[in-house]
Design goal:
Distance between the termini: 42 Å
Strand order of the largest sheet: 3-7-6-5-4
CATH topology of one domain: Nuclear Transport Factor 2, Chain: A
Strand content: 5-15%
Order of helices and strands: EEHHHHHHHHHHHEHEEEEH
Radius of gyration: 24 Å
Structural class: alpha+beta
CATH architecture of one domain: Roll
Length: 367
């Protein structure tokens, strides 16, 4: 087994296992309460492919790179907090202060944290709420923030959605007036699904499936309303199913000759161009989605064939009202690239740097 990069460098199985094991050991020693998932591991592997010297051993490489990997990881977390706060307050300085405070709370936390990004978002929201608590001019902002913390926590907890519970009693008008809310409240007027099915003259199985779909749709509606942009959770039940079918059809495209493979959908591209772009895709190992406009999305699909370099393709689609998909573009992404800063863009020298060094992170964690 070997993993390849666009630079034609590779990491064999022994190196791969050694890098992963050393990173996990370092993470467990440094961050006892935080699960970093595979973020640091993936960054280490990419750095090995792009920067490791031929004669350099894996332990030496990790010794040198690990502090930089941790600093980069926490910088990304800090930037995510900053972006969220800036959208809420439109206050640059306040957003910087809150994001820094949230990172410090994360580092000092002693309870287990599985998802650092979600945890930071909730903490940032709480900090904002406290700052606006005694400011009458921002009373509405405070109420909105406090409610957002509660409803997002409820939606992501995996619990059954009960619109009669207190958390949903003050749902915003936009959500209250939505078809998703009305359909879900109609179902929950009945004490049981059996009674609902009987009243509607449908089978229990059909009622249960309909309830599942409506709850998924209401959850997606709420998350999009509160600004979520990068998760399949923002898709309605039918949108998600439609995209899953679309992706299954998409990877069959290179194996077909003349027959169109994107059945029930349409494309602004030639089928031959899509087939050429997807050469090497015999399966989808992972995919992600980002909303870029009204019913327009960018989907990243990944394939790791094993014997050749991993493949990544970005597809821009539009989802029509009937959940049919229009393919607007399909292009190959390199796994490593250089982004040139435009000449008319200036990055202040005191911005964009890690707020905390590796040594500072270690100090805070040891307190």
């Amino acid at each position: 087994m070997a993993v390849y990069s666009p630079l034609n460098k590779s990491v064999d199985l022994q190196q791969y296992q050694s890098i992963v094991e050393l990173i996990r050991e370092r993470n467990s020693n440094l961050l006892t309460c935080m699960d970093l998932g595979v973020d640091i591991e993936n960054s280490a592997l990419l750095n090995w492919l792009s920067s490791a010297q031929p004669s350099q051993s894996v332990p030496d490489f990790i010794d040198k790179q690990y502090p930089k990997l941790i600093e980069s990881y926490f910088l990304k977390l800090r930037n995510a907090c900053f972006t969220y706060c800036l959208k809420k307050t439109n206050d640059f300085e306040k957003s910087e202060d809150i994001s820094q405070d949230a990172i410090l709370q994360l580092l000092k936390a002693r309870q287990p944290i599985k998802d650092a990004r979600l945890w930071l978002r909730q903490v940032s929201c709480n900090i904002l709420a406290k700052q606006y608590k005694h400011n009458q001019d921002h009373k509405k902002m405070l109420q909105t923030l406090e409610y957002e913390v509660r409803i997002i926590s409820e939606l992501l907890a995996g619990n059954d959605i009960d619109l009669s519970s207190q958390i949903f009693q003050k749902v915003e008008n936009t959500l209250y007036e939505s078809s998703e809310y009305r359909e879900l409240i109609e179902i929950q007027k009945y004490p049981t699904l059996t009674q609902y099915a009987h009243a509607k003259g449908i089978s229990y199985d059909k009622a249960r499936q309909f309830s599942k779909e409506i709850k998924k749709n209401f959850k997606a509606k709420c998350l999009k309303y509160y600004g979520w942009e990068d998760s399949p959770e923002i898709l309605s039940f039918n949108q998600l199913k439609s995209i899953q079918r679309y992706l299954n059809q998409l990877i069959k495209c290179p194996q077909l000759d003349k027959k169109p493979s994107i059945r029930k959908n349409s494309s602004l591209m030639k089928q031959s161009d899509i087939r050429q772009t997807l050469v090497g895709f015999d399966q989808i190992d992972d995919w992600g989605i980002h909303i870029i406009g009204s019913n327009k999305y960018r989907i990243h699909i990944f394939c790791n064939p094993g014997k050749i370099e991993p493949l990544c393709v970005s597809v821009i689609i539009t989802i029509k009202e009937n959940n049919r998909i229009v393919t607007e573009s399909c292009k190959v992404n390199r796994l490593a690239a250089i982004l040139t800063i435009p000449p008319n863009v200036t990055i202040p020298k005191n911005k964009g740097k890690s707020a905390l060094t590796f040594e500072q992170i270690k100090t805070i964690l040891s307190e």
